[in-house]
Amino acid sequence: MIKRKTMRKIKQILLSCLVLTTITGCFDDLDDGIASNSDIKDFVWKAMNSYYLYNDNVPDLSNDRFGINGIDDRYDKTEEYQEYLDNFDSPEDLFATLKFDPLDPFSVIVPNFYDVLNLQQGISLSNGMEYRLYFIPGSQTEVFGVITLVLRNSVAEDLGLFRGQIFRAIDGTNLNADNINELLSQDTYTINFGAYLDNGTEETDDDDVILTGNSVSISKVEYVENPIHEALVLTLPNANVAYLMYNGFTSNFDNTLNDVFSQFQANNANELVLDLRYNGGGSIQSALHLASMITGQFNGQIFSKLVYNDNQQFQNRNYNFTNTLEQGGVINSLNLNRVYVLTTSRSASASELIINSLRPYIEVIHIGDNTSGKTQSNRLVFDSPDFNNNVVTASHTYALIPLTANSTNINDELVPANGLTPDITIIESPFNLGSIGSIFEPLLSTALSEISNSGRSIPNGSEVGSTIRELRIPNQDSPIESLMFED
Fold it and tell me: How many whole angstroms separate alpha carbon 51 and alpha carbon 414?
């Protein structure tokens, strides 16, 4: 079994300081004045005109709309253009009208790009408790929560919280569809635990969730998440199965990920179960590195393509399989011809990229739920002459994260908007979670059953509670979830 690498709190603080210092040092200030609201709106329009993938679908973003092109005339304005900007009270209001909503629930505007740069490095304010929310049967408003993951070396782990725990209230207030955002977005709150009652019947209409009287206070702190949540090798009669739960494509952990694959090699792993069930995405380069660790026999061949809008066609690029890391060092590859990938509806962007871009090369057995359905990449766009981070405007910290390119595999296939459909459907419910890494956990159990050639059987309990409706809200600790960043 592979030992987990721990990160002590002092290391978290030092890494945070290092990242912030490095980030700040990367930028040269363009000016020291305070930007006006109009200047920031000017940045928003020109950045969206220049980079937004769907600018052709938004009439107000066309190059000839105001006689200004965001690329060629970066600092030009016309009277009509200025009047247009003045119609919006804030940069956020303008940005909202420039999104092509039918295809874009993902693009965001951020008032402080340092927060995003921290998140890209795995740094966030977090209590380490991840959860899903469900409506209480028979109710359209009342809600209960289930802890799905407790992050390593986090506040939640220190408190002894565990996967599968049910909570009904926060700060003594029962959860409902109207108060969940307010209650769960607090930095500190009390979790009031509950118990699910099925009343001895198979139907769910008479089920209920009651308070148990147990509670715990929990707080969010600055936290550095190692995306490698679990890594071990399971020995079956016919295979040595590497199991990896990987929760984010975070580039500064690529060397650590490569070390894990070195240990997989040392344990003679000849099968891999890649658990991406809670992985919302991240760095495309990290996805490429992971794909190259899984394979190894396709060095130099196209893994993925990025295709931009008409204004940025010169940036179209390919990501090719590689045998070296960006930071240097040889990639440890398993040279597999098959991989098992576990997903839920939370698996998005770079997680979907792995499945879609590996399929033309090796067999990918997809187990779990339909993925999110995000094939587009994002870029963090700054207010600078070229919209990059070389010379940023110090007068404000606004930045955009628009959809900028379509990501395809070598066969020009996109991830469908309704997500990737699994080969074997196993949907997580509040009652079949199991323990991560356990051979009895439903998704992993199904993969191991497939590897053992014992047939595709659904584990006991996997359909229990399938009629319980989930209530989806954005991840409070990572508001830019489901993004796939270009490198």
Answer: 20
CA angle, residues 449, 235, 428, in degrees to nearest 5: 40
| 321 and 443 share one domain | yes
Tell me the per-residue pLDDT of 140-188, one tens digit each, with 9 for 90 and over. Answer: 999 999 999 999 999 999 999 999 999 999 999 999 999 999 999 999 9
Helix axes 9-26, 113-120, angle to 10 degrees: 130
Domain check: are 74 and 102 in the same one? Answer: yes
Shared domain for 451 and 321, answered yes or no, is yes
From the list 222, 257, 156, 228, the residue with the least C-alpha distance to 14 is: 222
The verdict on 231 and 207 lying in the same domain is no
Q: Report the amino acid identity of residue 259.
A: D
**How far is C-alpha 225 from the geometric centre of its chain's CA atoms?**
13
- 387 with 312, same domain: the answer is yes
- Here the tokens at position 196 are 């699910």
Query: Where does a domain end: 159, 193, 219?
Result: 219
Domain that holds residue 138: 128-219
b vs e for 53-69, b when ≥16 Cβ sit within 10 Å of the residue's Cβ?
bbbebbeebebebbebb
**CATH at residue 186:** 2.30.42.10
Sequence-distant (≥ 6) Cβ neighbours of residue 265 within 8 angstroms:
332, 334
Report the C-alpha gap between 377 and 53 in whole angstroms: 9
pTM above 0.70, yes or no: yes
The 3-class SS string of 51-68 reads: HCCCHHHCHHHCCCCCCC
